[in-house]
Give the backbone structure.
Amino acid sequence: MIFRQLFEPVSCTYSYLLASRPGGEALIIDPVLEKVDRYLQLVKELDLKLVKAVDTHLHADHITGLGALRDKTHCITVMGEQSKADVVSMRLGDGDKLTIEGLQLDVIYTPGHTDDSYSFVMPDRVFTGDTLLIRGTGRTDFQNGDAREEYESIFGRLLKLPDATLVYPAHDYKGDTVSTIGEEKAYNPRLQVKSADEYVALMANLKLANPKMMDVAVPANMKVGLHQEEIARRGWSLSARDAMAAVGKPDVALIDLREQGERERHGTIPGSLHVPYATLQESIRAGGMLNELAKSTRKRILFYCAFGERSAMAVQAAQDAGLSSACHIQGGIDAWKKASGPLVH
Ligand SMILES: [Fe+2]
């Protein structure tokens, strides 16, 4: 596995770049806006293709690199389903898998620091965001934080992992880089409590100042969605309602860009073909399946995904590849559901 721990000194944030092999797909966890060029340089140097950018939660102390990475690489932005961010390409829930080529991370919902905090587990390591820090835990006094939930997330979920599991947090202010579950159980001062009540009392007495960047970072991090207006202005968008009228017509090929797990969990629009976003490029180039479909049948290619981000990027890519009939369902399955569009499970 290729693994890099990257540091941003102003907010003391750790970001993690993971891939299974040189030349393969990569994902990044908790990227910071100011460091985006550095990440991209490293991705290039390691001969990787960035396909997912993930935030463990909505950060209050730095501006996320999610939007900039998506704009520069067309990667998929990922957060938990509780996140207040306006649009991310993909939302995960407890029990889901976060996958790229050759790697699979178990997704566990670990609220408490915020109500949208997630941890990502691999066989030998866990990315804990701000839920469990090295010799500390995430503060619970804003962003719908809840000390009792954090206690449950830490004691009920994270500390149940094997003692040897490596702990990689989203921050460290002392310069520590990694710990283990066993070490934290034994030496983390916040975890030496006998009950949830004791933990709640401990957290209530921390009296921390708000992060310096909070008033800037939180609003900025809630607005990371791709601007889909340009796609709409060019006539490449259908509202969910217009799409409902088009679906089922013989001249429309409906293409689902989501991953299999999302399809199983949220259902699919009847009659759609599955072309995962990760395989889009090979499908739209000359000789590819969608390219052939568009050219041989003259069908209109109608993309959709979860929230309209992947499909908006797909429309642009397909148009660039000469598929002039490509369009998408604005707002994705989310908008389709709100318009009471039919779904099959
Ligand atoms: Fe945080």
Residues 57, 59-60, 113, 130, 138 surround fe (ii) ion (CB under 6 Å). The CA atoms of residues 61 and 242 lie 41 Å apart.
